[in-house]
Design goal:
Chain A is α+β, with helices and mostly antiparallel strands and about 90 residues long. Helices cover about 15% and strands about 35% of the residues of chain A. Chain B is an alpha+beta fold and about 180 residues long. In chain B, helix 2 crosses helix 3. At the A-C interface, helix 1 and helix 2 of A face helix 17 and helix 21 of C.
């Protein structure tokens, strides 16, 4: 696969390591009163859709950016990629 | 000067060099390196800051982009200096890290222009060799590691990889260059 | 057999070769198959199951029968298709899958047992009688099956890999591919043309007059233009074998397969081609028509007969018959007749067919049998209920053409049956960016292949925004096939469908009877298409037979899934040539050369080579060496290279806050100039990694990770920085390799370091335990000093730029000669950390908690950090096993890591399991073996005698529970 790196253009997926569902960016507040319950969901419950999926890729052999890649897990079509930092700051995650 | 004898990355007191037809591979033991990362409220450093995928040579240094808000500064012939310290003075408020010995650097030169460098690139790394022209630099996969590849000129290429794996990198570079010599 | 006239072989260059030890001569331009046929050799192999005599069946990479072993010694290569093996001088080939000679194969007895070796026999043996499987069936089947043999010797040749990028990849260099490449390359676009053959032209080379001018002439003109276009790369002998995601194609270039020995060249190159667009111009494969005993040497595809005559100037026999269900069979007869080959008859399944030459044509007839033990002698022809036998040495079968859709279907696209073309066709878009042209798209005539190739290239470039003009293409033949659907000739005797795996029409009928009807079941039950040819000449025919049996249409029956590789790819080339010591990166520590000079024994630690121990003259066992290294360190001073620990530079205004969130314990409160032990948890609450965190300046920390986790912890910290808390002002970069770091441990450590530092005050008052500083040593060398201890002794770690590591090691040993300075390796390091009760990888195995490590209270409740919340889960808090020290009651007893712990006298079963031993060693300090382990309620059981069970070695040992700190439990030494 080719990952369309937002800064470097298409890069071979072998340069990346894969983490999974981008919802891992939505880490609950560990000091909140309901933290135990929310962390249970955060750590253990994730969607694994056959279809469009927002997921985290790390450009380990490249610029060390974490990317949020939107990919169709059935066809491997990639619909977009952005720096996780930007996705996080933009509140899109 | 400290009274300790430094060792080159390949283990010898002197840098190694090897020639394969029109290609020469040389260990660059005198390259000083320091990384510079912008802090949130840092002012602009007194350094050229190339964009993603680029490498710029300035008067006494060269700089290439290594990540968002992060660059590597090269000082040729300055490995014995406290290069990071010198760069920190030009990048006040930035995060500067000494990287000189983090990497082994190999310079590859061609006596026959760009073509042998392009042919070598095709066998070394998965970059689009035709588009990887002078002034481009990238980090990419290389024999289960990652290396920085810098096209310093049409006929010059540099490969920087982790110092501890210098032997593996040297083997891969010289073996590939040697095979190109046979098929050239 | 003598050569025919013409052909594209170089008669001025003779090449000698051997087959089964006998010498023959061929010419440059021959394949092994064409050269063997030219020497009258029709018998080339034995079939897989029944060991039936087999000859060449095709003239290309689809060959099911003529598989041979090439070369000898370490270069021996099994299962090579003789039809694509380019002849070279000295080629040494042997037939395979036989016991005895090829003409008298003892295993041919299998043919008599064929009723027992039908479809599914392999699976049926699984079932009954069970006891026979392991002792009888499996060894017998394994010995008898399998074609060629491996050498079991290392491959002496080199292989490499490379990466190519292009606008357009053209797969196949026949009429369509040449037209496509020409159209595209003239625009200046980056084009790659890859063809598996050693000569461009594809089927153009196999036909007598496909173009208005001689085809080789036209091709030579094209090749001359190709050579002048620097934007075009022509790759001969290159098979594109797989279509992967996003325009990535796998290709193997056979760089020196056509040479006796590669010399300094690589044997093959694995190319990863990234193409913006691709055109599949892979042509078509002819299909045969199964009839009784249709597998004799001499029976082959009609198009192959024509190719051998036109390209290689050879015919397998002087008298040849053709069995056809379309017009193409007649073309073969005409070409052969023109070359002086006698045509016994053309048997056409269609009625109302006129003879096209001065030979006999039998319309409305079928071939119903054959004779000839080691090669075809006669065929039986049946027309309207009457049969006759015709003498002939070869039979060409023309059953129509199957487009080569493999690559177009590698993304699981299911081809559709096209009634008009009488063939499966791939749909556009099966592989995004890939279009299909020529015979692969059902455009089988030369004229249509040329036109569709050019048009496909024009359209592909248009999609990239490049305008291409269509080239002037020569006038070309434009014949139609007029295909009549005849899938097999009914009969009682076995009619082979898949030659390589010996699957017959009967087997398909049996599979149908046994309800293995869906094609994927049919395939596995009969092994149809599962041989090295992947059923290129058999799959479509087989599923058409199944369609006939089930009464479904061919389209409803469907095809099996196509998977890479298109043709076999050697494991050597997939490995890319990195073998032996180059199998993976080898990382050397900065003191490697010094250690080597001292005779150190090295151990692989991940990619690192670390000094394991430094034997001295007279030491005959590694334990002697390790014991000495431990005792010398504890008595004097020991030095160990600890560079391999991961080092990460953490800077920024929020560096402390960031580390507070990453580590379970507090780091923001760490004073500048001090170091703190740090424990990282995974988000699920389990302990993950430990190390030290040194604060060099207000906004500058350096943290260490374990050697094994250096990469993953760095990735995790970047995840935290970029994905969780991008608002924090923090920057990370790895500096593992930049600094050589040496541990200097032992009561004389301070004295030794005083001899190298440049006037730095090392006294306990100014530089206490857990202090750190920047300083210079040896006359101005910048260094970092950390007063940390893994051994329990007074200890420091000193870091200098890596290039000085080797010299510093030598200097310390030299300067410390009178202080007992001793280098120690990873073994002594391990012994000393066990003696001190420090956790390492064995204790941090991903199943243990901070509480088990005795560090539960380190997990701060005053702040949020990774894993903190989950570490307080009920199950984690209820965990009662904690780390303890273990010492044998009888000091001569062994302590074995992995042993399980039980209350003394308890039944040793899982219900009574009380924990396990994580680490063990011989402790020269204690004078016996010792261990660390997790024990239920361990903290309250000091002094208790328990049992350690090691059932694997039938051992059961009494151990006393003690503090994990065997050395200096009060920590006096390290604070000295």
């Amino acid at each position: 696969m080719l990952i369309p790196h937002p800064l470097l253009g298409p890069r071979d997926s072998s340069e990346f390591s894969y983490l999974g569902d981008a919802s891992l960016m939505d880490r609950p507040d560990g000091m909140a009163p309901d933290a135990a319950e929310r962390f249970h969901d955060y750590v253990h419950l994730r969607d694994n859709p056959a279809g469009i999926h927002r997921e985290l890729w790390f450009h380990e052999q490249g610029d060390r950016s974490w990317l949020v890649v939107t990919r169709n897990t059935v066809t491997h079509e990639i619909l977009g990629a952005e720096l996780a930092r930007d996705a996080r700051k933009g509140g899109a995650a | 000067m400290p009274d300790l004898q430094p060792t080159c990355a390949l283990g010898a007191p002197k840098p190694k060099t090897a020639r394969f037809g029109v290609l020469t591979v040389t260990e660059n033991a005198n390259l000083a390196l320091a990384s510079v990362a912008l802090r949130r409220d840092a002012g602009a450093p007194d350094l050229p800051l190339p964009g993603p995928g680029e490498w710029i040579e300035a008067e006494d240094i060269a700089v290439f982009w290594i990540g968002p808000d992060q660059w590597m500064v090269e000082g040729h012939g300055r490995a014995a200096d406290d290069f990071a310290h010198a760069i920190a003075h030009r990048a006040l408020g930035c995060s500067v890290t000494e990287q000189t010995d983090g990497f082994a650097a190999f310079e590859i030169t061609s006596d026959a222009g760009a073509e042998p460098i392009r042919a070598l690139l095709e066998k070394l790394v998965n970059v689009e060799a035709h588009c990887f022209t002078a002034g481009q630099a990238t980090r990419t996969g290389f024999h289960h590691m990652s290396v920085f590849v810098i096209r310093r000129a049409d006929d010059r290429l540099a490969v920087l990889g982790m110092r501890s794996a210098a032997g593996t990198i040297w083997h891969a570079l010289t073996e590939t260059a040697g095979r190109l010599e046979v098929t050239a | 057999m003598t050569r025919l006239s013409g052909g594209l072989i170089d008669r001025s260059r003779s090449l000698s070769f051997t087959f089964d030890g006998k010498s023959y001569t061929g010419h440059a331009g021959d394949t092994l198959a064409s050269a063997l046929l030219a020497n009258g050799v029709r018998l080339m192999g034995r079939s897989f199951k029944y060991h039936r005599p087999r000859g060449v069946f095709s003239a290309g990479s689809e060959e099911p029968n003529a598989l041979v072993e090439l070369r000898s010694g370490a270069r021996q290569e099994p299962n090579t298709r003789a039809t694509v093996a380019e002849l070279f001088d000295g080629l040494d080939a042997r037939s395979q899958n036989r016991i005895g000679s090829l003409s008298f194969d003892l295993m041919a007895v299998n043919d008599l047992f064929s009723p027992f070796l039908t479809a599914g026999f392999y699976y049926k043996t699984f079932m009954w009688p069970r006891a026979f499987w392991e002792k009888l069936y499996e060894p017998a089947i394994r010995r008898a099956a399998g074609l060629g043999s491996l050498t079991h010797r290392p491959d002496p040749d080199g292989y490499d890999a490379g990466y190519l990028h292009c606008d357009l990849l053209v797969i196949g260099g026949g009429a369509a591919g040449l037209a496509a490449a020409l159209t595209a390359a003239r625009t200046g676009a980056r084009v790659i043309l890859a063809d598996e053959d050693f000569r461009l032209g594809g089927r153009l080379l196999a036909e007598s007059n496909p173009l208005e001018m001689p085809a080789p002439e036209w091709i030579a003109g094209i090749e001359a233009e190709f050579a002048s276009l620097p934007n075009l790369r022509v790759m001969r002998r290159t098979t594109v074998w797989g279509a992967f995601d996003h325009g990535i194609y796998g290709a193997v270039e056979r760089v020196s397969d056509h040479l006796a020995e590669p010399g300094k060249r690589v044997r093959q190159t694995l190319w990863r081609i990234t193409a913006r667009r691709a055109i599949l111009a892979s042509g078509a494969t002819e299909r045969h028509i199964p009839f009784a005993n249709n597998d004799r040497p001499g029976i082959m595809l009609a198009g192959a007969l024509r190719a051998y005559a036109n390209r290689w100037a050879v015919s397998p026999a002087q008298r040849v018959a053709i069995f056809t269900s379309n017009d193409d069979g007649h073309r073969t007869a005409l070409d052969l007749a023109a070359k002086g080959v006698e045509i016994a008859a053309v048997i056409d399944a269609r009625t109302d067919i006129l003879s096209q030459g001065s030979y006999r044509t039998i319309a409305g007839a079928q071939v119903t049998g054959s004779r000839g033990r080691l090669g075809l002698r006669r065929i039986q022809v049946t027309q309207g209920g009457t049969s006759e036998w015709l003498d002939c040495g070869a039979l060409g079968i023309a059953g129509g053409w199957n487009p080569n859709l493999h690559l177009a279907s590698h993304h699981r696209g299911r081809p559709q049956w096209n009634e008009a073309a009488q063939a499966f066709l791939a749909q556009e878009g099966f592989v995004p960016g890939l279009t299909i042209a020529g015979a692969a798209a059902g455009q089988g005539s030369t004229a249509r292949a040329l036109a569709s190739g050019a048009e496909a290239a024009r359209a592909a470039l248009e999609a990239l925004g490049i305008t291409a003009g269509l080239p002037d293409l020569p006038q070309a033949e434009d014949a139609s096939l007029n295909q009549y659907p005849l899938w097999h000739v009914p009969g009682q005797d076995r009619a082979w469908v898949d030659f390589q795996n010996d699957v017959t029409v009967k087997d398909i009928k049996l599979a149908h009877q046994e309800n293995m009807r869906p094609v994927e079941h049919l395939k596995r039950w009969t092994t149809l298409g599962m041989a090295t040819d992947q059923g290129k000449t058999s799959n479509v025919t087989a599923l058409a037979v199944m369609a006939e049996l089930t009464g479904q249409s061919i389209n409803q029956t469907g095809t099996t899934i196509f998977r890479p590789p298109y043709t076999p790819v050697s494991l050597s080339v997939l490995g890319g040539g990195d073998t032996g010591p180059h199998f993976r990166p080898r990382r050397l520590t900065p003191t490697h050369d010094w250690a080597t000079s001292q005779g150190a024994i090295f151990v692989e630690v991940g990619q690192w080579m670390r000094a394991q121990y430094f034997p001295r003259v007279g030491e005959t066992h590694w334990r002697q060496t390790v014991d000495r290294e431990v005792l010398s360190t504890r008595k004097g001073v020991g030095i160990c290279d600890v560079t391999t620990l991961g080092k990460i530079d953490v800077q920024g205004g929020d560096a402390g806050e960031f580390l507070d969130r990453v580590y379970a314990n507090a780091m923001k409160s760490l004073k500048v100039g001090m170091v703190r032990y740090g424990l990282m948890l995974r988000e699920d609450g389990f302990a993950w990694d430990d190390g030290t965190c040194a604060r060099l300046a207000e906004t500058h920390y350096v943290v260490t990770t374990t050697t094994a986790n250096a990469g993953t912890i760095y990735r995790h910290m970047e995840f935290c920085r970029q994905c969780l808390w991008p608002e924090l002002d923090v920057q990370l970069i790895s500096t593992t390799d930049a600094w050589a770091q040496l541990s200097v441990a032992g009561p004389n450590a301070r004295k030794l370091l005083e001899r190298v530092v440049d006037g730095f005050d090392l006294s306990n008052e100014t530089f206490p335990f857990m202090a750190c500083a920047n300083l210079t040593i040896c006359g101005g060398l910048r260094a970092r000093l950390f007063r940390i201890s893994f051994s329990g002794e007074l200890a420091y770690e000193i870091a200098v730029p890596a290039r000085y590591g080797n010299a510093l090691m030598a200097r310390l040993i030299e300067k410390g000669a009178d202080l007992g300075a001793t280098p120690y390796g990873t073994e002594a390091l391990g012994v000393m950390r066990i003696e001190k009760g420090h956790a390492a990888g064995n204790e941090l195995n991903g199943q243990t908690t901070a509480q088990m490590l005795g560090m539960g209270r380190m997990v701060s409740t005053k702040k949020d950090s990774i894993g903190a919340v989950m570490s307080r889960r009920d199950g984690m808090v209820a965990e009662r096993r904690v780390l303890v020290g273990l010492q044998p009651v009888d000091p001569t007893d062994p302590v074995v890591a992995g042993s399980h712990l039980f209350t003394k006298g308890a039944v040793q079963d899982t219900a009574n399991d009380q924990g396990w031993i994580t680490s063990a060693c011989f402790s020269p300090h204690v004078g016996s073996a010792i261990g660390l382990g997790y024990l239920e309620n361990g903290a309250e059981r000091m002094g208790e005698v328990i049992t350690a069970a090691n059932p694997l070695q039938k051992q059961s040992v009494m151990l006393r529970v003690v503090s994990a700190h065997f050395v200096d439990p009060e920590g006096v030494r390290l604070r000295a």
